Write a sequence for this structure.
């Protein structure tokens, strides 16, 4: 079977699943109004999907062995497609949340299964190109999701962000039936069900995802709800690790972490997506809240970075077959860290090009990071263990993104308060700059016809609004600076990674 047909077959459903993780965000206001829901309630349509997705991803390898990978893949695409139709037809917020849970259960398996099939289909020396194909889908989804969701919602209705999955899902099912075949080690196997492992994993990851998604909104550990969710998550995950290490048929084989390259690669991927998701969440907030950009203009700043990633990935895929992949990975990490360092110098007067280029640099960095990192992490894994390994890898990638978003939104809020307190100290009658600004603003308002008292109050209001914008800007600078430092700190980990046989030509070790 032609490997490119197989690549298209597995990437088509994976792409729509990745798009669906972000497509709802921009349609949330429309959904809330249509279903008469509050702001806090409506965000559960996002959280419910992420929670069910996070639970399914790590057990994908186990489910593939239990039911047969091809059969399980067809089931997952079918469930995702049917639940997409049900989401579009939802009659209340409760029904939408329930159908989003089903959609997450169907979609969670698609990424790790696609990745394992690609790595098996392409020979080891072409693993870089296989991961370039996979990476294009992974990186393309979060970029096109918000743009597509906004356009569909504005021009049709929010229901269609779900309905568009149906024809793609049907085509995907037919392609899997005709083009995908299971190797002998992925046929259906009778196994004892690890009930304790399943239950502890579901509780631990479910509570963790809720904490990350709702933490900042609930003011973290000042909320009893977040505190208890955190305690339950930690206890469940500790017990899960103990159970999995001693059970005969674990739902997730943690022994894979004995492989140093695999363990290191997962850690690097966690922080790479921490950086990526943190920055692509910060950028549109900064552009729209401080710079006055519309959603479309913000998309134009983000879009070229995605294109840069799509261009860089195939180049990186070719390059790692000719040179040491560790060098390409180190280059990608440095470029990614440098891009967020550039973003930490944004200000309230930055022009379009100044905002655009750091995002393009980040796109290039991520393209050169993702391909060698995935190849180095998984090239030493045996084919029969690949399903379990890709499931863990995809879980940690997604968790890295969730931790990154939670981290920067918290930093943004806390640092803005700190900078506001510090800047307010200068608003005194003894500060010359403050007096000059107040005098000029008051005069300008009086010139427009306001009385002296009203003009002075308006002047004070204008200065305070300016102070709030400046405090917010400084908090964005702090957040970008911190994620840049975190990114560069993972550079020494590259030295611990090793290549599998056949992943690069001889003489490049």
């Amino acid at each position: 079977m032609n490997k490119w047909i197989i690549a298209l077959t597995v990437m088509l459903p994976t792409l729509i699943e990745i798009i669906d993780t972000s497509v709802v965000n921009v349609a949330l206001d429309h959904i809330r109004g249509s279903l008469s829901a509050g702001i806090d309630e409506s965000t559960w349509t996002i959280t419910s999907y992420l929670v069910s997705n996070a639970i399914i991803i790590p057990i994908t390898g186990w489910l593939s062995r239990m039911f047969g990978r091809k059969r399980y893949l067809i089931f997952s695409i079918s469930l995702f497609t049917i639940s997409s139709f049900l989401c579009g037809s939802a009659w209340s917020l409760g029904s939408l949340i329930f159908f989003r849970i089903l959609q997450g259960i169907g979609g969670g398996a698609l990424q790790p299964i696609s990745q394992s099939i690609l790595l098996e289909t392409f020979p080891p020396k072409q693993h870089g190109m296989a991961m370039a194909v996979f990476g294009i889908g992974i990186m393309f989804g979060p970029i096109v999701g918000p743009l597509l969701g906004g356009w569909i919602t504005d021009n049709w209705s929010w229901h269609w962000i779900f309905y568009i999955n149906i024809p793609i899902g049907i085509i995907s099912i037919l392609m899997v039936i005709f083009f995908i075949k299971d190797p002998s080690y992925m046929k259906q196997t009778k196994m004892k069900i690890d009930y304790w492992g399943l239950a502890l994993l579901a509780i631990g990851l479910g509570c963790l995802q809720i904490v990350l998604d709702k933490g900042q909104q609930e003011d973290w550990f000042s909320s009893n709800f977040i505190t208890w969710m955190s305690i339950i998550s930690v206890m469940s995950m500790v017990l899960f690790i103990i159970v999995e290490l001693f059970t005969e048929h674990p739902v997730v084989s943690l022994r894979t972490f004995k492989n140093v390259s695999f363990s290191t690669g997962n850690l690097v991927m966690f922080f790479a997506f921490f950086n990526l998701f943190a920055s692509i969440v910060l950028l549109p907030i900064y552009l729209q809240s401080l710079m006055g950009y519309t959603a479309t203009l913000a998309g134009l700043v983000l879009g070229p970075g995605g294109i840069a990633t799509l261009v860089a990935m195939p180049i990186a895929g070719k390059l790692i077959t000719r040179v040491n992949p560790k060098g390409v990975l180190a280059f990608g990490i440095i470029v990614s860290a440098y891009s967020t360092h550039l973003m930490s110098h944004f200000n309230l007067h930055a022009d379009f090009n100044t905002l655009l280029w750091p995002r393009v640099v980040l796109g290039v960095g991520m393209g050169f990071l993702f391909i060698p990192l995935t190849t180095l992490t998984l090239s030493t894994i045996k084919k029969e263990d690949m399903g379990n390994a890709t499931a863990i890898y995809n879980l940690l990638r997604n968790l890295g993104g969730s931790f990154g978003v939670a981290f920067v939104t918290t930093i943004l809020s806390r640092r803005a308060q700190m900078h506001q307190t510090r800047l307010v100290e200068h608003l005194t009658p003894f500060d010359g700059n403050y007096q000059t600004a107040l005098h000029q603003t008051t005069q300008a308002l009086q010139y427009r016809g306001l009385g002296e008292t009203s003009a002075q109050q308006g002047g004070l209001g204008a200065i305070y609004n300016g102070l709030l914008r400046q405090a917010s800007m400084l908090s964005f600078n702090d957040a970008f600076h911190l994620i840049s430092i975190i990114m560069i700190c993972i550079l020494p980990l590259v030295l611990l990674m090793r290549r599998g046989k056949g992943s690069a030509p001889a003489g490049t070790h």
User: Anything to note?
Assistant: Residues 502-509 have pLDDT under 50 and may be disordered. The domain at 255-413+480-499 is CATH 1.20.1250.20 (Growth Hormone; Chain: A;).
